[in-house]
Every structure is written in C-alpha cells, then in structure tokens.
User: Fold these one by one.
Assistant:
Number 1:
Amino acid sequence: MDTQIFILSKLMEGNTYPYKIKKQLSDPVPLDQLGGVTESKLYYHFDSLVKQGLIEIVEIIKEEHRPDKQVFGIMTKGREELPKKIYKVFENADTISEMVVGLLNIKYVDRDKVVEILEKKLKIFIAHWEHIMDFDKQIQVDKDKENLKEFLGGYISTRTEHTISWLEELIKRIQQMDI
C-alpha cells in the first residue's frame, strides 16, 4: 500500500512514468533499497492501480532504440481513493515508523481526522498499558525470576512511555501544522 500511495501522490503532482518514480525513490535517500522496491514491484503496483481504475495511461513516448515509455495520469477515482489509503496507513500502523508514508502525504487528507485517528490509537494504547500494569501487580514469581521480571518490566515500561510520549508529540505537531 505504501508504494501505491507514493505513486498516487506523485501523480497528483503531474503525469509521470514508472522509471522516473523509481529514480525519485532512490534520490537523495535510497528508499527503494530500504523498502525493497524493485523495478518489477513498481510496475506491479502501476498495473494494480490501473486495474483498480485509479490511474490510466495518458501518453506513450516512443524513442528510437529505447523501449516505449508509458506515461500515467491519476483519474478522479484515484484522487478520491488516495486519502482513504492514507487514513488506512494511520489506522493500521502500530508504530510511528509505519506512519511515514502517511505523514509525507498528510497534505492530501484532513488533519483533524488524522488527529482523531491518532488520539483514538493513543487512548487504546494507554488503556492497554494500564491493563498490563494491573495484571503485572498480580503476577507472583519465584525469587530466582525476580531479576528477570524487574528487567523486563523496566524495558517494557520505558518503551511504552517513549511510545506514548512520541505519539502525543506527533498529535501536537500535526495540530500545530508543524508536520
């Protein structure tokens, strides 16, 4: 889905062809390598978007001694589906790192709706953490496991507090239009 969002967002800026998008994915940061986006995967996503009726071929450029370039444009349905796909990124993400493609394309969605999604996610996360803390108080461990329980409890607690803090910071920055 992230690749499809990237393609649709590039087509919102203007018509383009797959090879150009592949180059944009690798410059200046090699996102294509980091995300495992090969040329064949990219073409697969273009084909998928065509089959979904979100994009279409708008031009074929013929060059001597080179393969034809298929230039794609976004259709009305694609413009309507892009925000839905971005909202799904926020809804399905378990970590902020899984929200990057949504954050990069936040200009195509309603910020208030994103904040609403994130606040709901934050409430669920905090409620889950409180439940775990209550459960942790009830667990009795052998003396020889006490150190492990303390270590794991500290690790999980620190990680959870860190996640809550950064999620709150993300919500604040979206509200302030800093992101």
Number 2:
Amino acid sequence: MNTSRWDERAQDFGLLFLRVTGGVFLLWVHGLPKLLNISAQLQVIEDPFHLGANVTLMLAIFAEVLCPLLIIAGVLVRLACLPILAVLLIALLVVHAQWSLDEGQFGWLLLIVFTSLLIAGPGRLALNVRFAGALRYA
C-alpha cells in the first residue's frame, strides 16, 4: 500500500471518528434529554430571542437530535453542522456569556468539532458519498 493511499484512509477514518463521537456526545448530553423531557424543558429553556419556549425548544431539538443523526450517518454533514454551530454560538455568547472558559469548555470543544466537520466535510465513509453523488459535498 502506498503512503498516499494510507493517508487517505486514515483521514477518512479520522473524519468518521470525529463525526460519530461528536454527534453521539451532542445527542446524548444535550439532544436526548431535551427530547425525552419536553414538558420539563419547556419550563427551564432560555429564550434569548423571545421566540417562545416551544419554538426555541423545537429549534434546539432539531439542532441537537436530527442534525447529529445526519452527521453520524454522513448525510448532508456540512449543512447539518450549521444549526449546531448556531445553537452553540448562541448558548456560549448570548445565553451563558458570563461563563468562564472553564465553565463553557464542553461547548467550545463541540464548536471546534463541528466547525472542523464543516470545513473538512464527511470524508468518503459517509452515506451521501455511497448513495447520492449529488450530495457528495453537502
């Protein structure tokens, strides 16, 4: 096996690892608790843009449940990163602006992970590459 082919495979596995671990962490820590406890979350969710608790929670669930599932599968990865990045930036810069770097470190790390995926794309070990040539760069 020549070195460039090995490098390509390592890069694809690295992107797969980044997609799956980042997606699972966001889904497990933030998305599923919101989805499984909607009524309780409606009472405590911050609404910085005064859209209403229902709309704000549905937008958060979209970004923290559906988008990570798309990213894990490798479908529309770059597009799915955008709502996640929006929610993370709003949380870190608006809702929790008083947090120190230590307090917000998980959010900042997720921001780094999903910005990296936005830049790099899903890699070749993604469903969109296998099944839909039109979505190759999504």
Number 3:
Amino acid sequence: MRSEIENVYRVFARYPRPVRVEGCRHCVTENDHRDLLGAPLRELGAERLRRFSHKALNTWGDVDDLRHFLPRLLELALRGEGDLHGLFAKLHQAGWTGWPEDEREALRACLSVWWEDGLTGTERPDTALDTLAETGDDLAPYLDAWWGRNTPQALWALADLVAQVAHTVPRARDHRLVTWLATTRGWIENAFFEMSEAGQTELAEALSESRQLLDLVTLDEPVPSGPETSPGAGAGEPPAPGSADSQATGSEATGPPEPR
C-alpha cells in the first residue's frame, strides 16, 4: 500500500501545516498544541496524533486541519498504530465523499487495497465491513470484490456478516446488505463443501450455520434465477449444506447483483 499512501500525501499536500490548530481552550492544552505541531508531518507518531484524531472537527480543528494531518493519520491507522474505525468515522463527519475528485480517488485507492488485503488472509478477521461502513461510502464495489472469494478470511467474514444481520432486528437491517446476502446462497454452499474437504472443520460448521441463518435473513428476498441457478432447488430456497438434496445436486454461485 506504499504507493497509495504516497499518493495521499501528494494530493493532500495542498493543505499546508497550520500555524496553530484552533480548539476549545478548556479541552486543548498548550502541551497538546506543542505535541501536534512539534514534528514534521511524516514524523508524527501515533501518540502525538491521538488526541487530535479523537477531538478533530468537534473541539479541535476544522476540516482543512484534518486534511493536513490525514495522510499521516491514515498511514498509521492502516499499519495498526491508530484507530481506523474512528478515523473512518471522522472522514464521514467531514463529508469526504463531496471532496474534490482526486482526493476521493486517492482515499478510495487506499480503502480498496486495505479491503483486498483483508480478503486474502487465513485468520478470522475483525469486523472489517463495519469499519468500512463508517466511511459512509458506497459499499457496492467492496461487496463485488468480496463476492465468490473462497479464502478462509473472506469466508469467515461472510459467516460473521450473516450472523450479525440475523441477530439484528428486521427493521434495523440494512436492506442493501440483505439483498446482497440473498445472492450468496450458492456461494456459501459450495464453500461449505470445499472447506469440509480441505479439513477446515470449524469454518465449514460456521458456513453450514450461516446457510441456515441466511434463509431467515433473506426470507422476503427473491431466489436468484437463471442459467447458473442450482438445478433441483425447486421453486423454494436452495438446500442447506449437508442436506441430502444439496449433496445430490450441488449449487452454483449466481454472482453478485449489479451495484445500485
């Protein structure tokens, strides 16, 4: 991600270092000011930036101040040395999706690489989609990049998402996610068999449970139809992993929906 981060530094260099970052005099001390402005941008450590990243846009600094420090904040957060969830929420608060095109593109390039990296690992991930959603950006491109990935990390994330949505009261669910999840039935079934054969027992069990939960989550969603739909599924839902029908017929992935 080095080149993407460097591009963020380049694009946001138009926001010069402030002489002083104005803030609430009851909330921000002179020591805070000295810490924030006491080193060149690229040399600021996570501890120096911690208070500013927490208070930015509320009691310390405006949007342009945030833009100046953003490259370093993003670099540290993506390296695991900062609060990525909180930083994404600040971007949303700052209205970044309405910023100039080159600024949006530079940030989205970083987000895409970060998301891609999160789909290729082997360990069970944190709630990456929740973190990404904090940006307020359109999730469709990221969901499209996720669809059909059979890496353990991508599948664990899918199982976790199904469980999360299933345990959210229906009126509070994001309908866009529910619609997308309705397209993952065949993907989950195929992944269940693949992980079972690979000896990934725990993951296979999680996928089997997810497939059953998915019927509840997507009860009112149409069953994908077309030439790639699983044969033998009948007019109802496709069979859950482990069922006799599922083992007899298998289910092919139907592909993601068109982004809205």
Number 4:
Amino acid sequence: MKARLFLAAAAGAVAFFPSPALAWGKTGHRVVAAIADTQLSGLARAYIREILGGAESLDEAANWPDEMRSNPEPFWQKTSTPWHYVTLNGIIYDHAPPQGDALEALNHYTATLRDPNASLSDKQTALRFIVHLVGDLHQPLHVGKCCDKGGNDVKVKWFGKDTNLHAVWDSQIVDEEQLSFTELAAKLGRHTSDADVIAWWDVNPRDWISESGEIRDGLYPPAPPKGAKGTKGAPAVPELSYGYVYKFTPVMERRLQQAGVRLAAYLNEIYAKPLATEPPR
C-alpha cells in the first residue's frame, strides 16, 4: 500500500529536470558501486547476493534505473524521473516536493529492503535504486537550485563542442581521463586512505546533500562579457577545457570516492544484523 501511495503521489507531476539528466553517467555510477563493493560487510554481501543472484554484480546494478528510462511505460517516462535529484536553495534540505525526489525515493526503497513481506522482484528494484541514488546525491548538480534544471540550461562549450554544464558533470569530466570504470575505481581506491574512510563513513543522506549543495555553486564558470558573440554571431558561452579539468577533476574524484564509501556504509547499516526473516527466495 505504501508503495502504491508513493507512486500515486509522484504520478502526473511535472519534473524540474528534463529526462536526460543522468547523474555521473555509466562510468561514474559503476565506479561508485565498485568502490562500495570492496567495503561491504560479510552479511551485507550475502544479502546482496541473495537479492541479485550470482549473475549480476553491484556495478552492473548501478545504472539500471537510468537504463530503464528507455522503457515506454508511464512509471519510467514520468513517475520516476524526479527521483534522480533534489532541488534546494542554499545547502539545507527542507522537504520533498509533491512529485517526490531522490531522498524520498531512497527512504522508500530502503524500507522495501527491510520489509519482510516484500517480494524478491521488489527487493531487486529497491537495491538497484539505492545503489544508483547514493551516487546521484553525490553529483553536485543533482542537488540543483532554482531554476536552471541542475545546470542543464547552462550552455557551455567543452573542448569546443556545444554541451551544457550538467552533461559535463554527468560524464564528460569523468571520462576525460579515458579510464575504464575498473581502472578509475582502482585508482580512487588506492588514493582513499583509512583516515578518509573513517571521516566519510556517514549514512545520513542529508549530509551528502548539504555537501553537494556547498560544492555546486563553485562549479559554474564565469559568464562571458555582456554582448560577447561566439560562433556565427551567436551569444558567447563559457569555454571549458584543460583549465576546468585541472581545477575540478579532484572535486569529481573526491565525490566518487565519498559516494563509494557512503554506499558501503549505507548498505552495511541496512544489513547490520540479520533481518526478521530469511532473505527472499
């Protein structure tokens, strides 16, 4: 019943982000899951294997909520769209809008994993969403502000090609180094100290949201001078290239590291002790 009410409340709402807003892209989400996988407790790993089965890894599950947005069903085309981000002015999260948001979805799916009456299919959906949403909340432009749709409306050039600031942070800055997700996850794992893990081990999503909100505004490039013209006389837009990469790659990598650590912490917290019943079969 709670699930149906949650879906009904979200259905029919207008999202503030356009549907292509996919946090981190495929590489980033897989990196987050791969980092988390190295820090799972034995109990959490056992429950995850029971839910996903032996053929699906955590990093494979990470992009499923984005991949399913190609499904023409109304749930994927309309209802679930606002569940990939939150919107706030400043850095303190207040409450979800009527259509729901990423934090409300995270809470909903966490309850599903803990529900002894939930079906295996529901738990699979819940786990895949949780893996994805923890990554989303660490992408600073998925903690959007009014009213540029998380940077989707901020037009920029990335090494001379037209794009927008949101797309830069979803994929382009992550993929600039041209590492596979396993290579990038291994690199970031080597550069995550025990002290980092201790400092970042935080299961409160509101803290992650506030961190992203603090980072977000600093990612916006200066606007060109008023009246400046770009290619073919069009209004000039910020040109992002090596200088932006140099300045913000450490920020991007730190958020991926933190998301991986927090995902492990969050899943370990859910499975801190055996649940009331055996895992679903």
